[in-house]
Automatic annotation (TrEMBL):
Residue ranges of the region described as Disordered: 1-39, 258-277
Name the record gives this protein: DNA-binding PadR family transcriptional regulator
Protein's organism: Paraburkholderia youngii
Keywords assigned: DNA-binding
Pfam families associated with the record: PadR
PANTHER family: TRANSCRIPTIONAL REGULATOR YQJI
Domain (Transcription regulator PadR N-terminal): residue spans on this chain: 110-178
Molecular functions (GO terms): DNA binding
Length: 277
């Protein structure tokens, strides 16, 4: 779902000013939309345009919402969160529209950060924001209830420092984290990937050179291979079941080879290793 606009009148009224940006709507058709993008040359407008791109390109409005079927925090997320780890966005790189982190995902992310360094709640929020280059920053209203729940489970202990709580990992939390280590690593890897894409968009809008591959990210050949694979799958959108199974087998073999080339492990089937393109 697109994020809501303040204007409920005719399209022309919406195009005159895009809610929250203070410049002509980037949704506007024809020259109006192009002019809105072309005139985003000042630092302020460039920054606003950057966030517009990220909002729509990655489905940002769902990034801070949490669900988890039957979870303490409610919502309609499913097992595996983030859409079963199938990817964060329409192209497999961002948060998928309509999907959310589950409460279990948030708890695991927090446990991992606490394992790295005992922290206060605010520090954990900032750590997640830093890991995603500002893209993902859960609200205190989500983080603190999750921390309270982890304390009730015996996964973390609390040290009072004035009027603040400092959270440390307990043995039970360490065991739970170890049992879900691969899942946590994948979530952080996706956040890091989004952070790099954030930086790429920022550099492009600022007229800067792309980051060197040594700083992270993918070489052009790999990006081209991903696009080619995506297009091949789209052209077989209505393929019969037998053809889909054949394609799935090819993708799983490729995933196994990719995993084997890095650490010798085999790609696993299931939600936590669903192929993305």
């Amino acid at each position: 779902m697109r994020h809501p606009h303040r204007f409920s009148g005719p399209l022309g009224a919406q195009n005159r000013c895009h809610a929250g940006f203070g410049h002509p709507s980037l949704h506007a058709g024809g020259s109006a939309g192009r002019d809105a993008a072309d005139t985003a040359t000042s630092p302020d407008l460039r920054q606003r345009f950057l966030f517009h791109v990220l909002l729509h390109g990655f489905g940002r409005h769902h990034a801070h919402r949490f669900g988890g079927r039957g979870s303490r925090f409610g919502g309609h997320g499913g097992p595996g969160g983030m859409g079963g780890y199938g990817g964060f966005g329409g192209d497999g790189d961002g948060f998928p529209r309509g999907r959310k982190f589950s409460s279990d995902d948030l708890q695991l992310l927090l446990l991992s950060l606490i394992d790295t360094q005992p922290s206060h709640g605010y520090e954990l929020i900032k750590a997640l924001e830093t890991r995603s280059n500002g893209f993902y920053s859960p609200s205190p209203g989500m983080v603190y209830p999750a921390l309270t729940y982890l304390e009730e489970l015996g996964y973390v202990t609390v040290q009072l420092e004035g009027n603040r709580k400092r959270y440390e990992l307990a043995d039970a939390g360490r065991e739970y984290l170890a049992a879900n280590r691969e899942r946590v690593e994948l979530m952080f890897a996706r956040l890091s990937h989004i952070a790099r894409k954030m930086d790429s968009v920022r550099r492009a809008l600022a007229g800067e050179e792309p980051a060197d591959v040594s700083e992270g990210g993918w070489v052009p050949e790999l990006n081209e291979a991903r696009r080619t694979l995506k297009n091949a799958l789209l052209r077989r959108d209505n393929a019969p079941a037998d053809e889909q199974r054949r394609i799935a087998a090819i993708l799983m073999r490729a995933a196994n080879e990719i995993e084997g080339g890095s650490n010798g492990d085999k790609a696993k089937t299931g939600n936590d290793s669903e192929p993305t393109v």
